[in-house]
# Entry
Amino acid sequence: MTTQLSRHQTDAGTASAPPVPEVDPAAVAAFAERCVGFMNQGAIALLISVGHQAGLFELMVRHPGSTSRQLADTGHLDERYVREWLAGMVTAGIVRYHPDTRTHVLPPEHAAVLTESAGPDNMAHLMQYIGVMGRVEQPIVERLQHGGGLSYADYPDFHRIMAQESAAVNDASLIDGILPLVEGLPERLEAGIDVADIGCGSGHAINLMAAAYPGSRFTGYDFSADAIATARREAAEWGLANARFEVLDVAALDVSEGFDAITAFDAIHDQAHPAQVLGNIHRALRPGACS
# Structure
């Protein structure tokens, strides 16, 4: 009996042992190379973000064929850091270097993607998110170990970057391109209606509409106090009496038939309770509202 039990345990143990997979050395090497590429591309993304925020790409367009010293002096920057940044850009193939004159050139094809002339297609804006995500790496590791959540306060600069990105889109197309997509909306805005923007962020869209349609009244809702403060500051600077902003989690919006039109620019998918937010929007619209 003992012998049979021992044999059974041995057989069971052998049967349950996972098979040793065959490893393809070429696949291992290829994936390792990909991982090195991940790291290099991430570093390049950060360098692009740094250059964008320091205004270096714009400087290079205005002053083509400059040395690191000339760029630093023109932009009131530290030459050593400019030189190191340029070296990274040259290594990445983004900037061209002429060793005879020690000058640097940002090719026009690259400038068309990395400078403000690209408008809403400026990819340098997007690179800033890498730094934002990097700042929450350790808090996320801690949450993985102990649970809990993060708040907007854990993502510094998020609203500044979002405001840049949204402003580029809205400045280029909101009034003349996006609003006319809703039949009759520009005419009703001209006549004067009540409008709300859900998840308004820094409020630039509301302020653009309020400036374009002084006969209408606009309300922006967002749960970020910092974003709302930015929105109110811009409205004050523009002298807008028909734009107001409220700090509010739109999942708790409690308005019945209060607005003739409600906008939500790239905001619903960010909500913790999107279905509830959409229900609140539906309840807040008046009969015959623009849709």
